[in-house]
What does this fold into?
Amino acid sequence: MNTGAEAVETAIKCARRWGHRVKGIPDGRQQILVARGNFHGRTSTIIGFSSEPSYRDGFGPFCGGFRHFAYGDMDSIRAAATDDTCAVLIEPIRGEAGVLLPPPGFFAELRAWCTENKVLLIDDEVQAGLGRTGKWFAFEHEGIRPDALILGKALGAGLLPVSAFCADAAVMDVFTPNSHGSTFGGNALAAAVALEGLKVLEEEGLVERSAEMGAYLIARLRDVQAEARPLIRDVRGRGLWVGVDIEPSCATARDWSSGWRPAACCRRRRTKR
Ligand SMILES: Cc1ncc(COP(=O)(O)O)c(C=O)c1O
It folds into this structure.
């Protein structure tokens, strides 16, 4: 496809058709489980299951068929699931929510639960995938294999929109001629750029480089954190995907990106005291 959101839409269609044709859920009753605090793009279907009010405000009515769970919490997933659940759509690391890593062991448990309950595990790696976390795919950190994978962003090598929904034939084959398509999806230029981009990642060892440089970046940022307490609350990430958690009573990331500087924060804190 072209954008990440379109690949997510493709995943949703595939999961629903798989749920109906393979799992036997009556058409129209299929449900997909999504995490609270998710980010999967900005189409009207996708923002319909966002829990961020600013993405939704004024854009209703929204599409049904999604149920929320608390990320990292298997009990919450079990509680949200029904016989009509066809898939769990999930980010391996929550980017937009603040580069939040999954609790250890969560994905292994989720993988086992999905297999046991005939539910597809769909891994949205639009942000995390293709080396950013120091492995080709973030799911490799968890020692699992999802049933389907969504890729975008880096797949276009920073040049043009290319995205993909990837799955084994047993899942993908629910798409039949005419059931899905896009004018520019898989066009020759985009495919050539994606292939070349993958080749550069491989030949230049950029995945390994992300692991190395990421470890260095995190270590240095932790030094800065030690100096800048209480301004920096946490530093977390994998590979070169790193988040710096700013103490909210000092400032927000939005303040920072709009020109705010720590000195002002310290003044503000001193005044408050
Ligand atoms: C996890 C995830 N999924 C989907 C998307 C949507 O991708 P796009 O902006 O290319 O539509 C994003 C965008 O940031 C994302 O981070």
Notes: The chain has ten helices and eight strands.
